[in-house]
Amino acid sequence: MIARLSCAVVLTLALAAGAASAQTAKAVLKNADGATVGSAELTQVSDGVLIHLTAKGLPAGEHAFHVHAVGKCEPPFTTAGGHFNPDSHKHGMMAADGHHAGDMPNLIVPASGEVAIEVVNTAVTLAKDKPNSLFKPDGTALIIHAGADDYKSDPAGNAGARIACGVIEP
């Protein structure tokens, strides 16, 4: 099942088609026990970064999905820091003055625990030496939370514990 999500993040599959020379990255997501629960392929597209996430073994329901500011995934994954926020915005895709660059739509995980999504985060880039680059000196990470992001509570959307983490690597 591929869920197509949109809000401040726009799905743009066509932009990635045929982009063999596009800059790419990857992340392997693990749970607190160290088991691999998913992977993400990231591709630079004209509108931002296309993230293709596949995951299994997740609890059914709605889960926050964010880019976090530090590329370190030691359970309980607080080592990944807060949301990636190079522009010092408030949290939430509904924030009046703009949202964290790491804010993305919630994942909807069916009863099977398996999910595959593609989403474009328009607030980040894979281009090095840019303020919103996912390749910053401390790195960045993808996090899946136990609960849903409410898209408005600052600083993290009341999303709960961090249940999976993957460092974004070239």
Structure description:
With 170 residues, the protein is mainly β. It has a single domain (2-12, 23-167), classed as Immunoglobulin-like (Sandwich). It contains 1 helix and 10 strands. The strands form 3 sheets. Strands 1-8-4-3-2 form a 5-stranded mixed β-sheet. Strands 6-9-10 form a 3-stranded antiparallel β-sheet, with no helix packed on it. Strands 5-7 form a two-stranded antiparallel sheet.
Specify the CATH class: Mainly Beta
- Which structural class fits the helix and strand makeup? mainly beta
- Largest sheet composition: 5 strands, mixed
Number of domains: 1
Tell me the helix content: under 10%
| CATH architecture call | Sandwich
Let me know the average pLDDT: 83
Number of strands: 10
Number of helices: 1
Give a brief outline of the structure.
This protein has 170 residues and is an all-beta fold. The protein has one helix spanning 13-16; strands at residues 2-4, 24-30, 36-45, 48-55, 61-63, 65-68, 107-109, 115-121, 141-145, 162-167.
Characteristic key phrases:
170 residues, mainly beta, Immunoglobulin-like, five-stranded mixed sheet, 1 helix, 33% strand, disordered N terminus
Topology:
Elements: E1 2-4, H1 13-16, E2 24-30, E3 36-45, E4 48-55, E5 61-63, E6 65-68, E7 107-109, E8 115-121, E9 141-145, E10 162-167
